[in-house]
User: Fold this.
Amino acid sequence: MAVLKVIEVMANSTESFEDAIRNAVKQAGKSVKNIRSAYVREQSVSVNGDQVAEFRVNVKITFEVN
Assistant:
């Protein structure tokens, strides 16, 4: 039986939501091993004038604990 743990990570990108998600998983992978899945909980943007300045995500990362 595997033991799984979930952490919540916030990340951002100036490019896209997809890039922000990739950033979240990449950053989590620096300190957590055996990542199994990522669930995007929230998406938001910051706006500067009439332009989207930044894409933000709140991601739940599930990983296996040895």
Notes: The first helix runs from residue 17 to 29. The chain has one helix and three strands. The domain at 3-65 is CATH 3.30.1660.10 (Dodecin subunit-like). The chain has one domain: 3-65.
